């Protein structure tokens, strides 16, 4: 007979597995998908608006509008009983595309300010900012997970650690490394979601979830 804690742990692991299986589709939609959306919107703005904008300015606004937020779509899919895989892909893509959109926006913003990029420089910039941010996020995730191993049954310290590391990871990426802080924070959060859900059990897990749900709601 399984106790409630064991069933809860198995449920958390079961929720992670679909995300891992769909990661390729999420990356495809959030990466090339956002770039194509930026190009499409930028072209539409350039050809439609009578403001005489340059291509750089049009693509800058296109990058700002390129990310989608499918909250209503996901809610509708759940009401219609759509597959969990489809909902997982859309939700995961919506998390990733914000970071990608900021990287694309930063590129065109620097172009508008007068910096010049050839195709090789653009590819190098996107790779450096994106992969560097992801690497920083994962590195902080690994460090904090190892740190959590030295904390025993102290919910306040555990939650404080996750909050502090989140801010330090963002500052390190955005200010020190000059890469995308949002993308680093997203990578840090996804690493936590995949590898530390089962580290918080029982009341500690509930407190952890309630804190971050409340924190997120206070920002919205």
Structure report:
With about 220 residues, this protein is mainly α. It folds into 2 domains: about 1-115, no CATH class; about 120-220. Helices cover about 80% and strands about 0% of the residues. It contains 10 helices and no strands. It has helices at about 5-20, 25-30, 30-50, 55-65, 70-80, 85-110, 120-150, 155-175, 180-195, 205-220. Helix 3 (about 30-50) crosses helix 6 (about 85-110), helix 6 (about 85-110) packs across helix 7 and helix 6 runs antiparallel to helix 9. The longest helix is centred in the middle third of the chain and has 30 residues, at about 120-150. It is globular and about 60 Å long. Mean pLDDT is about 80; it is low at about 1-15. One of its GO terms (biological process) is potassium ion transport. InterPro entries: Cation/H_exchanger_CPA1, Cation/H_exchanger_TM. It catalyses: Na(+)(in) + H(+)(out) = Na(+)(out) + H(+)(in); K(+)(in) + H(+)(out) = K(+)(out) + H(+)(in).
């Amino acid at each position: 007979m399984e106790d409630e804690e064991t069933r809860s742990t198995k449920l958390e692991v079961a929720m992670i597995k679909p995300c891992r299986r769909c990661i390729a589709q999420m990356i495809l939609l959030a990466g090339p998908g956002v770039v194509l959306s930026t190009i499409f919107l930028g072209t539409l703005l350039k050809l439609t608006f009578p403001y005489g904008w340059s291509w750089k300015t049009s693509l800058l606004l296109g990058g700002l509008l390129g990310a989608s937020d499918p909250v209503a779509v996901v809610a509708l899919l759940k009401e219609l009983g759509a597959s969990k895989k489809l909902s997982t892909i859309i939700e995961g893509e919506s998390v990733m595309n914000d970071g990608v959109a900021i990287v694309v926006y930063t590129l065109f913003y620097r172009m508008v300010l007068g910096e010049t990029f050839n195709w090789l420089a653009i590819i190098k910039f996107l790779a450096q900012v994106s992969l560097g941010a992801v690497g920083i996020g994962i590195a902080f995730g690994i460090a904090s997970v190892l740190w959590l191993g030295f904390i025993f049954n102290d919910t306040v310290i555990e939650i404080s650690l996750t909050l502090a590391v989140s801010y330090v990871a963002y500052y390190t990426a955005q200010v020190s490394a000059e890469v995308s802080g949002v993308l680093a924070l997203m990578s840090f959060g996804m690493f936590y979601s995949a590898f530390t859900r089962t580290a918080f059990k029982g009341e500690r897990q509930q407190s952890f979830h309630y804190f971050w749900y409340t924190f997120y709601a206070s920002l919205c």
